[in-house]
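subagent[fold] <- orchestrator: predict structure for attached chain, return tokens only, no commentary.
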Amino acid sequence: MSSQHKQTKPHEKHPHFGNLPLSTSGPLDCALMGTALLNTPYLNKGAGFTAEERETFKLTGLLPVDIQTLDRQVKRAYQQYSSRQDDLAKNTFMTSLKEQNEVLYFKLIQDHLKEMFSVIYTPTEGDAIQNFSRLFRRPEGCFLNIDNIDRVHDDLAQWGTPEDIDYIVVTDGEEILGIGDQGVGGILISVAKLVLTTLCAGIHPNRTLPVVLDCGTDNKDLLDDDLYMGLKKPRVRGEQYDKFIDAFVQSARKLYPRAYIHFEDFGLPNARRILDRYRPSIPCFNDDVQGTGCVTLAAIMAGLHVSGLKLTNMRMVVFGAGTAGTGIADQVRDAIAADSGKSKEEAARQIWCVDKPGLLLKSQDDKLTHAQIPYAREDSDWKDTENPDLLSVIKNVKPHVLIGTSTRPKSFTKEIVQEMASHVERPIIFPLSNPTRLHEADPADLNTWTSGKALIATGSPFPPVQFNGNEKEVAECNNSTCFPGIGLGCVLSRTKLLSDKMLVAAVKALAAQSPALKDPDMGLLPDVVNVREISVHIAKAVIRAAEEEGLATEEGIPEGEDMLEEWIREQMWDPAYRPLRLVSKEGANKHARGEMRVAGVNAN
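subagent[fold] -> orchestrator:
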């Protein structure tokens, strides 16, 4: 953090950047009064309005007399949260709080991030999604359905003008958080991802749009449920599905040309295909494909630093060649190519992917997905091994890195792990499948089986591990340390595209924050509690890479590194009460009139 930033007081406009449209310093214009103000979540302060604001905005008589600081409000809200009987009830409470007071909602999470992360996101958000139609109270976000493709443009247009939306998360609900097809309930994963972008990277919450593309569902429980609120028919696929996706993408780009599009939890047949189709022409991202790959590559880079090995010499085995597994393979392949000057085809030869039938081989042909094809090996190289399984691959390849994305619990057996450890000094082993019960191995076992030599990262939080009295942190490959910063960099630079080089820059920026670089017994990745600071560094790297490739379109990006950092920080939304300044409705902007993220209000 620059010394200049440390000296900047809260709400004080930075002398250089206070006039930016996304500036977060100084007072906010407000044209609302009384109950209308209290009913606007992003302007409401509840009992936190000052005495002067209560007079100016006609709130006297509408609030108890005591004026409360944000910290006192957080204390009360935390007591209310803690009184809920289970995590799903706590999740529901947080949703209600968000609909009332946005600053308080985010401040409460920020102050209790470690405790609340699993409630506002996985695994509890998965429970909320499964129960969407039963817990439904009020809608949030944009609901588009495949039976009304002709309405896509008009329904999207209700959410603002071209300048109003910075970040869109869209899902079709087919592959949600490891719980599968949840149909229209997928809207809640779009909502949750956007919460993380604000919490972790300061994306302005009233400049985001969650979207669900309702294509039907193949979930029989939902189809048989009278309360289910989505299309009650099997998922539509093929040409009509592609037309629907394209209608959304083209409409979103036309209506909100400055917005970054984040694809989330699309099914295996579509996730990579959709990303590959649109990535060459629009700034877009798929967290399941690219986010998991980026954060895992960052952990690999930190592990290679500890083990004294270069990325260009590394051999890696991926067990589980679905969306996440091939996404990781792609990011590693692209990084090898970027660092070595090799072609992507050459770089892919350092990666072996094993799936349900065993090692991916070219003879499997039509059984391979589009994403698996680059990693299929020549059958002639394995003619002495029938149906090569994970153990035989480990014996033959002698990998430095073993990645698990298989959802097959305990599949990294003692025999497999010790076989790997017999060939490399510091085996890098990442059992990443979620939830915890599906992990390929317990970190404590990995540590014991390798006599404390394994460098470990997991897909869920685990306690430290010990061997002969030596304690080591277990890193969590949490996408939230990566995708929000990438999104922030793309939004602030107004990049035309999100390129491979921008992603590699993001990975390197994340890897540079690894505690293991200073102490090999620390985690390979930084803790999520430090995520906003991490996001600043990632965004800075992404912006610089966008500039180098001629993709950044925002004017006035600072040249100096310290000033760029300050420029980024000034535009990151913080959960803090800013002073309100009364303006007339006639001359007020949409934000001041309380019309951001209010559908059907498009006047300037």
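orchestrator: received. Logging for downstream: The first strand starts at residue 28 and ends at 30. Confidence is low (pLDDT under 50) at residues 1-13.
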